[in-house]
Each structure stands twice: as structure tokens, then as C-alpha cells.
Write a structure and sequence with these properties.
heterotetramer, A alpha+beta (420), B alpha/beta (232), C alpha+beta (422), D mainly beta (248), B: 232 residues, alpha/beta, 6-stranded mixed β-sheet, 4-stranded antiparallel β-sheet, 8 helices, 10 strands, globular, C: 422 residues, alpha+beta, 2 domains, 6-stranded mixed β-barrel, two-stranded antiparallel ribbon, 15 helices, 14 strands, 53% helix, elongated
Amino acid sequence: MAAGPWWRIGWRNLGRNRRRTILTATGLAFGYWAVVVIAGMADGIVADMVRTATGILSGQIQAHAPAYLPDRTLYETIGGNEGTDVPALLAAIEREPGVLGAAPRVYAGGLVSSGATTVGVLLVGADPAREDSVSRLTAALVEGHLPAPGTRELLIGSELARQLNVRVGTELVVVAPAADGSLANDLFTVAGLYRTGIAELDGSYAVGPLDAIQALLVLDPGRVHEIAIRIADPWTAPAIADSLGTRGVTPAGVPVAFRPWTTFRPELVDYANLSAGSMWIVVVIVFLMAIFGVANTLLMTTFERRREFALLLALGATPRGIVRAVLAEAAALGILSIVLGVVITVPVLIWWHYDPIDLGRLFGDFTMAGALVRPVLRTDYPVTMFFYAAGALLLTALLAALYPAFRATRVPPADTLAGR
Amino acid sequence: MTTPTNAAVRTDTVWKIFEHDGITVEAVRGVTVRIEPGEFVVLAGPSGSGKTTLLNLFGGLTRPSRGRVWIDEQDITDMSERQLARLRLERLGFVFQAYNLLPVLTALENAEFSLLLQGVDEEERQRRVSALFEKIGIAGLEDRRPGKLSGGQQQRVAVARAVVSEPALVLADEPTANLDSASSDALLDVMVRLNADLGTTFVFATHDTRLMERAKRLIRLVDGAIASDHRR
Amino acid sequence: MQRLRLIVRLALRNVRRQARRSALTAAAMVVGLALLVMSRSLADGAHDEWIEAGVRLGSGHLAFQAPEFRARHAIEEHLSAADRAAVEAALADTVIAPHLKAVAPRLEITALASAAAAAVPVTVVGVDPAREPAFSEMDQRIVEGRYLEPHDHLQGFVGVELAQRLRLRLGDRLVLTAAGPDGAITDQLVRVVGTFRTAIPEVDQSLIHIPLATAQAWLGVDSGVTTIAVLLDASWNADRFTRRLQEALAPHADRIAVLSWRAASPELDAAVRMDDYGDYVFHGILFIIIALAIVNTVLMSVLYRTREFGVVRALGLRKRDTALLVLTEGLILTGISGLVGVLLGLAVTWGFFHDGFDLTAFMGDQMTAAGAVIDPVFIPQFRVVQLIQSAVSVAIVGLVASLYPAWRATRIDMAEAMKFEA
Amino acid sequence: MRHLCIAVLLALASPLHAQRTAREIVDHVDRLLRGNSSRGEITMEVVTAHWQRSMTLAVWSLGTEYALIRIDAPPKDAGTATLKSGTEIWNYLPRVDRVIKLPSSLMGQAWMGSHFTNDDLVKESRIIEDYEIAIGFDGMRDGVRVWEFVLTPKPEAAVIWGRITEEVRQDDMMPTWARYYDERGDLVREITFSEYQRMGGRLVPAVMTVVPTDKPNERTVIRYVRLAFDVGLEPSFFSLRRLRSGAE
């Protein structure tokens, strides 16, 4: 038998009691809305965590000399003692599809001192112009300005500034063992303060212009320890790292190891998995609830239509046909609800993506799995959940219809037609 | 039959106009009528002649579009819902075509509904309902739910419910429509007796000719207006 | 009064008559509420575990320190024997004492740890081996060897990554160098008696536990400690006890500060509150869905019974009464399913998860968040307050969800009663 | 280990009676290596996998408490000075004209890129208090009569080594080498002494070579160019003002 008449009957039946249909569909659509928006928020939080965790300094992919990690010794620059053509390497990396920016850096353990206070820090030499496209360090500037290339200026964390009791404009003594074995030391001026909210970053990093720090450490301009890379979609990091590694973007004979954030921040991957896992719990709970609402409605409509079903049976319809009619009605209701759900969900997703709910006033920032989380509930677009939730909704409607459909076939025709 | 007393119910050129989807239906068109206490009146007419609407206007179930309605010389036209509810409780009884007993209550509980609302104590309620059931021939059915009663029995319970608080006016819409002739005769007997014994005013809307025959006053309605008004 | 009784009776009978429909609505609410109870008790359990994990590795649910210690972290900011006595006296408070799970005195200092292979900066905590295991449960994180024991003297319990970095094995020597309160640098030998892994890299790379007496003798602070950390039976008691202790210790406020875990670990606090907020959102959605189910059913039952409402109105019930009738029906339904739902939730949670709700599949063996390692097996926490909250919320939801149907019921045309077919 | 200090404070060995106990001999050598006060000139050559450099240092010392070391060459680093006073270490940086006190957490770092740590400078010598000393070998090696002493730390001694062995020539009480082991018995570093000559009126090994075992291609070689003992320094000499002014 063609599905046609049952579909038509199902659809028209929905129109018979508009209020009830709208109420039920609204309930289902709301469930859909809730699931997709919660998933969007969870995705947004995870994406935000990944973005902040990798965005503040580390980047989503890092390039090092193969032996640089884990000891991070001063000498293990990319290309060894000879260094490499850094601008060419940067340009080659930036040509890779999906890469938004790349920034070269040097690192060295050292001391900064002001007055009687001396603190051990990690000195970072960075190119402020390039950092903008990779890290949020420059965006985290809360006071002063960025160190200008060629100057002995430092950007330090607010916590470090507090420990040293210095302000913008104060001179700092910077001491570090240099690459030639000497004890490098020089005066740097605090150009700016940054605050990322991550205690370690704010308390023990001092960032200077790449050239000035290289000069301090007696490293040639071609010698850098790291190239931090930012990419458009953090989840493509492993693939892009792989591609960069195999495509041979580096000048001949210079071995470079590309590592995606998923390898150096595995706990973030854990959290993302957990978040995705708990989403399924939400989906199940929401739609489990919805099943009862829908079953309720359908059961009532089938009761109301006992006479009609009896008539259909009397006219020779098979019980299976009746089941199909009820299921068709449920399916029609499901589809209506999905349409309604999408209509109410998409604008909210877009709205909360561009103008997210900010809970900062309630909670302040905090770190989770090592990443700073700003309690801004920016929704992401949970593409898969969009479809899964629709599927779950339809399934919900059909599951909910099973019992009413079964009941409908059990109508005793004679009695019902007799008006009892 | 004119009496110096107040009319049980009277109207002054009442109109009831319904509007449904832009279609205007003039269900009652300028009816002026006066029904005295103790009358046994039948409103007759074909379907759509406005009988039920007029009955609803009498009972304050529907507000007139124009004109006025008085019950016991109290103008109910502009009464608040609250006042109307009180008036219905104390002065009016209804018998409906489809019995309309509350399915969740027993026959006794259905019958004593108004007494309950009036705050009559339980003993008194029991006494009055039992007496009434006795009188109308359904004694012993007190504890049955409506679902376990026949149509005639249900309608008798409905009548009992309508008259138990001894209202001045009982309005009944096609009370015999769903009954076989034996049941409807019995029911009519009950009502005639109540009319005679208690002086309760009855107003029926019906096209049941047997009921018309019993009427002491027969008002015929055609297209929402009174076509004739005969007292016997 | 009689009117009210009548209404209640009618409502009760209506609910009973519509058994199937009532059952369905009730089922929706029961399931919703059961899920709510489950999810809340699990969330509470998870949070408490989270907080506890955090505070166990940190300074407890509440901690006593010299006021400047938190900012300066200097050994001279320690609590003297007299201060400790004052703290002990305050903790003996009859309200607080029954809630104490562990009290751990600690002497915490940053030091240089040198071994033959290398020297690295570390955090050394002098602990009371008799009291500390109940607190930080470091004895359950042993990779090798054992935890400190009461008669230990030169033993050190070392983070596994630190041990690797210094290439230390069990029994190996380790020299700790730090400045005492007078600024003089002194050395202390300890031998590795055990290594541990908390899975928090910062901790595993830099934490050493040594016996408190050894630390005190080494640094020359007599019986001084930097922190007295207190673990309570439940984290939600922390705030009020902190206030109570602050009042009790007000005369010593210049020397003793009382910190709750919220102040000591603001990150953890914020993370937990954020997660709480997420739970509220989720529970809010559950409630809205429950409410929709109730609106649906109650409204259906109102619309289904238009004639009935017409009749009772014709019989003299006021609009208010009919609304009340509908509300009462909603409340009865909510009340019954609320009770059943809470019980079911408790039963299911208890039945299936009293050993813990295992999220290992999603989280791996453990994860770290806001400085705490979370075991992915959540033990549900039942709280009377929480159950009452759930039940009251459901009652409110039931009431609110019945408002619209109730209002609808007052709008029913009484003339409906006169019609034969509804 | 404070072998830089040992070297700095190297003293003349005086004739000895062969029948002294091991403990007495090691104590003797240890004391000999520390004069009351000293003033010297040293060259230090550091070779690492990545660079090699040579420095000329001027050194003053008083007991184990005080030492002042100033770099005289190369010119780039000239004037850079380190003051050890008790347990504190201060550095003077002429380029920026500042004095910096080293935080205790950084004591483990290499001093001036050498194979000594700042900690080596600070730690007081307590060899005879910290170690049990036994003679591991007594006899001829390469035609020279030597003792090999085995130093085992006492149970509570705050020292990092699992064992130290030291070879001393019996006839002139000159050390030839010292080997430092961890607790597993693995050699961690070795110091060899050579070019014994008279300086400041005493016989001393003028050259001392430190080799870390895990980096056999690296070494620090210290050579005494001039050395004078008992030069009459007072504790007040070792001041921050002196550190800054360069000590002359």
C-alpha cells in the first residue's frame, strides 16, 4: 500500500486540533532548541578553551628543532647552530591552507631584577607584529605599549610586575646565560604589562623584541627556537601539522618537528571528549522527557478518534494501516517540530554567537584543564548535533506514537460505532 | 394568570447576535416575554429557532446583545459573573439535553452539588436528596456513578440536581431528547409533580410534542422571534 | 470551606478518572523529576568530589594561616605554637567539631632540591604523617615505595616527575636547601621513601612531603606551621564555618587568618560555580519540559471537558472556583508524581550509582580541572535541602504550568453545557 | 661541591706521617686546600658542546665564609664579579652597573657557564663531618704510591653524593683525582688535578679539570696563574661596595 493516504491523513489530523498540535510541536521544538543550544554552548566553551589555551601563547601548532623538546636548551634552535632562513620558513608555513599566521620566538631562562628583588623568568623574544596573528599576548596588554623591534623593551605579566614592584617605564636588569657561555646582562625598560589570568604566564614570562633578545643571548637573527602557528580551525591541527611535516616547507636539510596542540595539551582533548559525552546524556534526558509529552498528546487524539478508527476498521482497513496512520501523524508532528525547532534555534545560535551571554560579572575568569575560561557562553554551531537532534526528535515522536498506535488498533468497532 | 408578584423571569426586547467567522447569526431577535412564578412553560420551535439561546439568556449563561433580562425582577443583564454565579446557585436549576452529570461523582453527589455549594450540612443534604430520589423513583441508586445508570435514570438525577435546592426557576433544554418514550413520560411526570407540589417554575426548550402537550403555556419561536404564545 | 472541599474532591476524582492520561503526565513528570534528582545528586557528588579533590591537594575546605602568608609565601609568616593552640581551641567548637574530617598542620616552603644529577626548585611541605594521609590522600597516589609514617625522620615523598628529573630512586638522597625565617640558608637531607603521581603536572614536578618535625627542625621554627588545613565532611559547610571561625578568632585576627577554599582557590571556586550554572541551565530546561508536559495534559483535560465546566458553572460555581479546580488537579498530579519522581530518582541513583557514575568512557582515567584531578567516577550526593528544593520547584512548576489551563477553564462558554456534542 | 673554592683556597701540603688514619689524611688535605685567606689569579677554560671560552679571574677568599671573584677577561665580561658571603651569592654586572642577589631557587644554575653551580660556591666544606672515610686502596699505581680514599656520606648528612673517591699521592699528599658518584654507584663527575707546582710558598696542583660524566666532551679547566696565602683579609673586605668597585 502506498504511504500516500496515511501521510495525508496524518498531516490533516494534525490540523484538526491546531492548539494541541502547536502545543506539542512547541514542546518538541523547545526540546530540539534546548539540545542544540546546550550543545552549541558546550562546543563554544570547548572551542573557547582550546582557543585560549593555545591562543595565549602556544599557538595551535608549534615547530621546533627535533631535539628542542623536552629540555628546551638554548642551543637547539631550528637549523642548529647555523640557523635557518626564518622569513622564508615563515612564508612557507603561511602558504599552507588553513594557517592564519606564524610567529618566530626564542626562549631562555633568566633573571629579571629591580631594586632588591630578583625573580627567575622565562625570557621570550618575539616579533610583536607577527604575534598579533598568532597569540593573544599583545591583546592581553593592559598598560603601556608593545616592545618595539630594535629596542630593549620588555612586556611583562602583571603578576611579575607586582612581585618586582615595577611599573611601565621602570628599568629592569635582565640576566641570562648566553649562547656563547657568557652571562648576558642588560637593562631593559618595561614597555607594557599584560594580564592573561593564567598565574604562570602572568608571573614568570618577560617578552622582548625578537632581535633584542637574540642580541642579548648572542644568537644570530637566523636562530629561533620555535615557530608558533595559528590555524583557522583548531580541530584541523593534527592534519595541518602532518601536512606541514611531510610537505617539506623547511629549507633543505633543516629538520623541523611540527606538533599540534592535541599532543602538547592532551587534557584539553579529554575535556572536549567529556563535553561531547555529556551532550549525549542531555539529548537522552531531554528527548526521554519529550516522549511522554508526545505520547500523551497522541494517546488523547487516538482516544478522541476511536469512532473514526472503528469506522476505518469497519471499512476494511487493516490494523497495520491504523498503526501507519498514527505513526504518520507522529512523523508529521515530528517534521513540523523540527521545522519549528530549526526556526527558533538558528536565530538564537547566531545571536548568542555574535552577542554571547557574559557571566563574567558573576564568576570572573578561571582556568579549567589548564586553559583560561572566560565565562562567556558564546555558542558555536554544533553541526552534527543539529542533525542528530533532529533525528532524535523524529525518533522520539515515532517512539511516543507506538503505544497510542497500538491502542488505536484495539478499538472494538461495534461498541464504538454504537456510541459507547 | 397575572399575579401581583414578581415575574420568575422576564425579558425586554432581547437580541442575541452571534458572529462566527464573519457570519452574523441573529439567534434571538427582540423577544419580550414574561414568565410568572409557578408556570410550566415550553419554548417550542424547529432547530435553529433560538430556543436554546433564549433559555441560555434566561439563565444568564449567555449575555444578551441588546435588551434586558430580569430574574425575580433583578436585572441580570449587567450582573457580574460572581453575582450571576450566586444567582444561579440560589435561584436557578438546569436540566441539560445530554444529562451532563459529573462523571466523577455518584448520583447522590451529583444531586447534592448545589446544596454543597450553598453550605447545607451533610445530614440535611442526605435527607433532601433521598426524599427527592424517592419522589422521582430512583431511590437506591444514590451510590452509582453516572456511567452505571440508564439514560432515564441519569436524567432523573439531573432533574434532582436541578430542583434539590428548590430554585424558583428550572431551565431545561431538551431533557427528553435522549430518552425512550417510557422514560420521558416518567420524567415528565416527575417534573409536573414538582411543579404542582413545590410551585417550581419550569421552562423547557424542546420539540418533543409529548412535552408540548403537557405544557401549561406554549411559546413558539420562529427565526428567533415569538410566533405565538398560548396559555392553557 | 465546603466549596473548597468540593473542589478538592472533584479534582481528586478527575485525576483518578483520567487515570491513563494522568499516568502519562505523571510519568513525564516522574521521569523528569527522577532525572532531575539523579542529575542533581550526581552533579552535587561530582562537585563535591571536585572541590574535595581540589582542596585535598590545596589547603583544605578551610585553612588557618598568618594573614600575610598567602601573598608573600614566606616562612617568617608562620603560626606560632600559641597561634596553633588558639586554632585548636576554635576548632573544638561544638558546632564545628563533628564536621571535621581531617586537620592537617603543614609547614610549606619553596626550596632547592639537589641530587647528584641536578638541582631544581621545589615546594616542600612538612606534614604530620599521622594526620596527613586522611587529608591529602597522598598515600593513595603512590607510584613506588610508601607514604611517610609517624616515626619517619629523613624520609621524603616525592612527585614522580620530580624524581625522574633528579634521577632519584627509592632510598636515594636528596638535599633540600632553603632559607629559614632569619634568612639563613640551611640544608636538609631526605631520602626518597616513595613517589607519587597526582596527574597534575605542576604538583608531580615540584612537590615533596617530608615529616613536619624534620621540616621544623631544619628551618628552625620550633613547632611553627604555615598552614593548618581543615577538611570538612562536606564542602557546603565551608562558608558558614569560615565565618564562625573568623568570629571566634577575631581577637587573633592580626596573626591568624581563616580562609575558605573559595578564597584559597578562586579558580576552583569559579569553575565549580560555572559548572553549577551549567547545571542550573540544564535543570531549568528539564523544568520547562516538565512544565510543558503539565500544561499539555492539564490543558487537554480542560478543553476535553468544556461541557463539564459549563455544567458546574451553570450549577453555580464561580469562575474562580473552576480555575481553582484546574489548579488543584495540576497540583495533585504534580504532588503525586513529584513524590514518586523523587523516590524513583533516589532509588535509581542509589540502585545503579551508589558505587559511582562512571564517565571513564568519556574522560579516560582522570582529568584535571582548575587545579584538581577529578576521578571520572562520580559518587552521588544526597542532600535533604536539595531534595526539598527539587520537590518545591516541581510543585511551583506544576502550579505555574496549570495557570494557563486554569485561565482557559474560566473562559469556557457556559452555553457549551447546553449543546449536545462538544 | 665547592671545588672552585677548594681550588681557590688550595694550600701547601706539608710533610706527613704515613701512619695517620684515613680520616686525618682527608681532613688534612681538605684543610690544606683552604688557607686562612688567599688572593689569586686564575684562568678558567670552559668547553661545552656548543661553545668554548676562556676567562681570567681574580679571586679573594677568607675561610669558607667569604669569597670574591672578579672576571678580568675577556673584555666583554670584564668587571663582572661574584660575592659569596655566608650562604648568599651576589653578582655585580658592570654593563648595567647593578648588583643582583641570586634567589635561592636559582642556586642550582651553572656559575658563569662553567660546570660548577652557584650552589657549589655556597656550600660549606664539611667533608669530615659529612662523610665516613675509609682507605679503599693503599699501594702503587703507575709507579706512584697512593691512597684511594672512599668517602661515604653519614646517614643524616645533607650531601647529594652517594660516594666520593679521592686519590692522594702518599709522598707529597697531593690529590690526583676525585670522583663523584650517585647513590647507584654511577660516576657523575670527575675532577683531575695536575701540574703540581709551588705557589705562594706551597705545593699545589695548578690545574684542575672537571668533566661531567654524561657529557664527556665537555670540561671546565681551572689553572692557577698566581696564588698567595694569608694575605690578611678581613670579613669587612667582602662587602657589596667592594663587589661593585672591583676589589682593588
